[in-house]
Amino acid sequence: MTSLPPLYATLTPLARFKGQFDATAVVAESRKIWQTIQRSPHWSQIHRDLKALVHGVDRHLSSSTVIGDGIETRLPDRFDYEALEKLCASLISWRTGPYTLGSFHIDTEWRSHMKWSRIAPLIPQRPGMRIADVGCSNGYFMHKLATLQPDITVGFDPIERCWLQFALIQSLVRTPNLAFVPMGILSLEAFQGFFDFILCMGVLYHQRDHALAVRRLFDATRSGGYVLLESLIVPSDKPLVIEPRDRYAKMRNAWVIPSANHLHTLFEEAGFTEVSVHSFGPLTTNEQRATKFAPYESLADFLDPNDPTRTIEGHPAPHTAAVIGKKV
Ligand SMILES: C[S@@+](CC[C@H](N)C(=O)[O-])C[C@H]1O[C@@H](n2cnc3c(N)ncnc32)[C@H](O)[C@@H]1O
Prior knowledge:
Layout: H1 23-39, H2 41-54, E1 66-67, E2 71-73, H3 81-90, E3 99-101, E4 104-106, H4 112-119, E5 130-134, H5 140-145, E6 152-156, H6 160-173, E7 178-181, E8 195-201, H7 210-219, E9 221-233, E10 240-241, E11 256-257, H8 260-270, E12 273-282, H9 299-302, E13 303-304, E14 307-311, E15 319-326
Parallel strand pairs: 2-3, 5-6, 5-8, 6-7, 8-9
Antiparallel strand pairs: 1-2, 3-4, 9-15, 10-11, 12-15, 13-14
The structure holds S-adenosylmethionine (SAM).
């Protein structure tokens, strides 16, 4: 009977690429978050519960994952569902998904398959790619990307909860060739020219310096590779600059909400070619809503109740768009 390797082991699928990225920087950054988890009674208890849950079922797990609208896997008959539910409750809020683990369903804040159906037709269909998902949350899209048969998919997210959620799901689902690196977009510096395809969704508008973030994506892309960046946008010709004291849709950390034109310009200025922008219209409360496992305020609370084309602060309500470009 083997036990779950430490959370840190989500990095191990990267080991065979040693020498092709800055492993020292990755280990140093990851160690910082690992130490935060160890120092926190809350997070370290969750990590112990996670190890205990998987310990003992390890050898009974079969690779029976179904990647549909949700990520579904079978679990052994005598699985401890009570412990699973307790663990998932302690890891609230669950944002990307949904997941079905045996007979247990996690209804997440986002019906992420709706986003997937918009962006999937834009993704290069090439097996054997090295893929990054920057701002991967709990890794939902990494499992979806597995249908492309990548050489490796590396998820990046600097938030402790995301690392633990990923480790929980992946220890039961076991999609091949997935790594999780607990670092943010700017730390992509450690992966110069490494990836054939980078997906970066829902991250840009939290960045103070959009141009720097896009440059990091460009630099981490291999020649001939592509970056697909998806973002909330405002339906306007110009980006919306948020005053320092103001908020956008109740978000404290939104600095500039891009327009579709702004996405195009950012990509061209970073050096991408064959740049195209795809606008998807307004974000809906059918796609993003509060659930049992995401019980906090959601999109409906961020919009003007009398006018859903405005945010609660009176700004234009969020639309979404994706920009894709090639690095020659
Ligand atoms: C709005 S969610 C988007 C999740 C998913 N990519 C999607 O599109 O549904 C933003 C994600 O970015 C992560 N994040 C926060 N700061 C980040 C940073 N500096 N670099 C990369 N990801 C970050 C958050 O933890 C969160 O999981």
